[in-house]
Amino acid sequence: MRAIVLLSGGLDSYTAAAIARSDGFELYALTVGYGQRHARELDSARLVARHLGVARHLELAVDLRSIGGSSLTSDAPGFDVPRDRDVAAAADIPSTYVPARNTIFLSLALAWAEAVGAHDIVMGVNALDYSGYPDCRPEFIRAFEAVASLGTRAGVSCYDPRPSGAPCGRCDSCLLRAKGFAEAGAADPLVLR
To answer: What domains are there in the chain, each with its CATH number?
Structure first.
């Protein structure tokens, strides 16, 4: 079983990767250099990948600095990393949020998963102390799972499709697909065709 693991080098991604490895997955680590201030995390990701013995460690450069909107990718005045903030009481999204970062990362992981035949993507996000980042919420992850099911070759596969192209609903592939939609709380639009 192959899995793509988004590996930042931080505690959450390291822990998620270690759990996946202990569950028997062959790990393909993806680290994204997105123009972040704390480039030290790239070195940490390399060390973690070596320690976990990943099958391959792919590093991609996707520079998000020109998009802006985050203190993690900008040195501009007014984009300082917040310090000494009461995170428990904070209701706003902090300036360290990078617009659509996890959406971008998951999309890259999904593309690589298709290329290497991996059916699982592992991402270490934490819904308990996520600083208000909207793309760390469980509902975001569930929504991306639905996108992955709809937008990939694996998502529309069926071993014995109906003449209309709709899934048969009974083969192993369809049963796994139905389980994914059920877990995501979404209706499979191909079943209705």
So the answer is: 2-124 (3.40.50.620)
